[in-house]
Design a protein that fits this description.
The chain is an alpha/beta fold and 300 residues long. The protein has one domain: NAD(P)-binding Rossmann-like Domain (Rossmann fold, 3-Layer(aba) Sandwich), CATH 3.40.50.720. Keywords: NADP, Oxidoreductase.
Length: 300
């Protein structure tokens, strides 16, 4: 029997790795011993798209991918020009000295054909597509579910569900075009699995629940093409979106903090590690999964 039964099916691009490397080192005195765990998390020379990348979680994730070695991360967002926060972050990326680029693309995730075209233009320029983070999303105010206006409900789903699909399609079509596989990360929310206590957010919760099933469905279709699709579900995080609640209703900070075992809400930078893990070869056998990062909100 082979030492590694899975070797006939798949071989790590960093092979030999792990215990296999240790065994080979024992047999071969000339074997170069070096740690490879950080190489597994690297995304060197890869190209990606991050929607909602002008600020907030999207920008945080885009920066993390650049720090992990990506050649270029294209931040898609609605404003015609990037925010000051984005501009400063792009300058920071240049100073890292890794050769990574943060690029800004004005785009409406609700426009399927435009999203496809912009991704195709990136493919033409870079000749590859490896990573997609569909992070664009909106949240509307507390609204009674029995009185919820049709247009407002449609607006939320157009961005949070349709927009996520169109972003994933745009990047995935280029992944298919170049045949190298890739990783698509759909940003859902713990609100797709639970209902936020005392918040009437029927449109947001519904949209995020749809994203969970979207990720599973796409993962099953695209697995044979080595395109992995997972969802990432943050808990309560202080971002520009949640600030609309927290800054005007200070009591909510204590309330939200006490809803998880850690007794605090999350920071945007706490999404960095899981994003890089999902984008990299470190998660090469992970697809169709929902990764919860909620401070244990579900564990009560």
């Amino acid at each position: 029997m082979a030492d590694n039964p899975s070797s006939a099916q798949s071989v790590s691009p960093l092979a030999p790795i792990g215990v296999s490397a240790a065994i080979q080192a024992a047999k071969d005195p000339n074997f170069v011993v070096k740690p490879k765990i950080f190489d597994e998390f690297a995304v060197a020379d890869r190209v990606g798209i991050v929607s909602g990348g002008n600020r907030g979680l999207g920008l945080e994730m885009a920066l993390a991918l650049c720090e992990a070695g990506a050649r270029a991360i294209y931040c898609f967002d609605l404003p015609s020009t990037p925010s000051d926060e984005w501009t400063k972050t792009a300058e920071y990326v240049k100073k890292l000295g890794t050769g990574s680029r943060l690029e800004y693309v004005s785009a409406d995730v609700r426009d399927q054909k435009a999203m496809w075209k912009k991704a195709e233009e990136i493919g033409d320029r870079e000749q590859r597509m490896d990573i997609c983070v569909a992070a664009a999303g909106i949240l509307k105010s507390h609204t009674d579910c029995l009185e919820y206006p049709a247009e407002q409900f449609k607006e939320v789903l157009d961005v949070n569900t349709n927009g996520v699909l169109f972003t994933a399609q745009a990047a995935g079509r280029q992944m298919r075009r170049f045949g190298r596989g890739g990783s698509i990360i759909l940003i859902a929310s713990m609100s797709g699995s639970i209902t936020n206590k005392d918040h009437a957010w029927v449109s947001y919760n519904t949209s995020k629940s749809a994203v969970l099933q979207m990720a599973r469905s796409m993962a099953c279709e695209l697995g044979p093409e080595r395109i992995r699709v997972n969802s990432l579900s943050p808990g309560h995080i202080y971002t520009s979106m949640t600030a609309a609640y927290l800054d005007t209703q200070p009591h909510l900070l204590d309330k939200w903090s006490n809803l998880n075992p850690m007794g605090r809400i999350g920071r945007p930078d706490e999404m960095r590690g899981v994003t890089v893990w999902l984008a990299s070869d470190a998660s090469s056998f992970c697809t169709g999964s929902d990764i919860l990062v909620s401070g244990g909100h579900h564990a009560w």
